[in-house]
Amino acid sequence: MRAGLGCSRGLRQARPQRERFAAMTQTVRNVDDLRATIAGPVLGPADPGYDEARALWNGDIDRRPALIVRCGSAQEVAAAVGFGRERGLEIAVRGGGHAYSGTSVCDDGLMIDLSRMNAVTVDPAARIARVGGGATLADLDAATQAHGLAVTGGVISHTGVGGLTLGGGMGWLVGTLGLAVDNLLGAEVVLADGRIVHAGPLSEPDLFWGLRGGGGNFGVVTEFTFALHPIGPEIQLGLFFWDLDQGADALRFCRDFLPTLPQRSGVLIGAGLTAPAAPFVPESFQGVAGHALVVVGFGSAAEHAAMIEPVRHGVPPRFELVTPMPYVALQQMLDDAAPWGIRGYEKAVDLDELTDDVITVLVEAAATKTSPMSFIPIFRLSGAFCDTGPDETAFGGSRSAHYVCNLNAIAPDADALATDRDWVRRTWAALKPFASNTGSYVNFLVEADQDRVRASYGPATYDRLAAVKYRYDPENLFHRNANIQPRGGAR
Ligand SMILES: Cc1cc2nc3c(=O)[nH]c(=O)nc-3n(C[C@H](O)[C@H](O)[C@H](O)COP(=O)(O)OP(=O)(O)OC[C@H]3O[C@@H](n4cnc5c(N)ncnc54)[C@H](O)[C@@H]3O)c2cc1C
Fold this sequence. Notes:
It contains 14 helices and 18 strands. By secondary structure, the protein is an alpha+beta fold.
């Protein structure tokens, strides 16, 4: 039976082997004790700030935790984990609060909110960043770019480093530097039993492997350590737009063109993208749906010019934007396409190739979405992404060059979202026969049902993850994620 929050029963005595924070968890007998332990807010439904604290990026998620603990340190996270565990409360861990799935908030349980833990410390000589578990990509980029350094993030800057990294982390730099996890050097983790450990190649190596793709299954990461690389501060942008009539030809062109690009480039296809009312968009195309290709150069303007020249000779785009810009501006360029509080739903497939059959589905989908904000970002994973072996990290999916095709319904109200949620599901079903992995990227799983989680990782990686899960979280305390079911064995 679950004990309520107001229960006067104290915590069970911490076991002697629990490490540094056993003393602290012993004193957390009730909510008042918890409040005294946590320097930041501990919010219940009646407290000011509760509604803002439980809100996530996805405005379609409306869940009401019994308590929200805004932790400021690993020790406070350990105290909160202990408090929730001892009372049998469901625990949700919020990093950036950006997951479509809304797994970082729960009804009735305990929400551990890491958003105060957003410090980023850069050692420019060692080219290392230490990043708080609740930092956003904007926090990360601002601190690292101050030194002309960067690590792979995603394409929307208000995404959390936490969830993004633990699932893999792909963005403009994936071809140049690999995934975010490929650049992870270590992590500080609060485990289900309250211990605070460091995971790295030489310390808790199985945990370190699992963290690099296995999501939030193994504990709360309170600090990530990343290797950094010289990038920017100026990069070269090339954005090209074709209208719907050109769709099939444009996507076939992309299929042939993208594999010819050098490794030190970044690409994204935006199938079914509606052109914004931006100054660089000719008035006649503002609000018009079509297909976009973005090609980013991380070298000189001349190199980029040579790189993008074939686009103009392929299928002539209706308009283009070619310009140098700061790397941080690139990272924020799409922020307004998916603003905080909008409603969202997504479903993804991995595709080895953009075959004619796939392109037929994409062209049809682009013409049939209803919300102007809905679109299909297609990531190409190649170059440095392929330099890491399939067993070296727990990333779900192949390490050969392929595409991750992410069907996004994004809409301002529930009715419009419902319409395009159906559109996403129909399009996904039409792409499924051509998919190399129907589980796809775990960070794009909204309904993280076991079949798709297993498909995403494949049997060997899933089984290894299940054993690591059993060792570090045998009771599945951290289950609000693309869940790995603990599987018994030696612990
Ligand atoms: C508009 C949009 C654009 C996106 N673009 C990209 C992209 O370009 N590239 C890409 O790779 N992904 C992208 N994503 C997916 C994104 O990586 C995931 O949604 C990711 O989970 C977000 O992390 P978060 O910390 O903000 O999310 P949250 O909702 O806070 O957390 C998501 C999951 O991770 C867990 N978690 C978060 N932080 C921690 C932590 N510190 N320790 C333990 N568990 C933690 C949570 O418990 C939860 O299960 C995008 C998502 C959206 C909504």
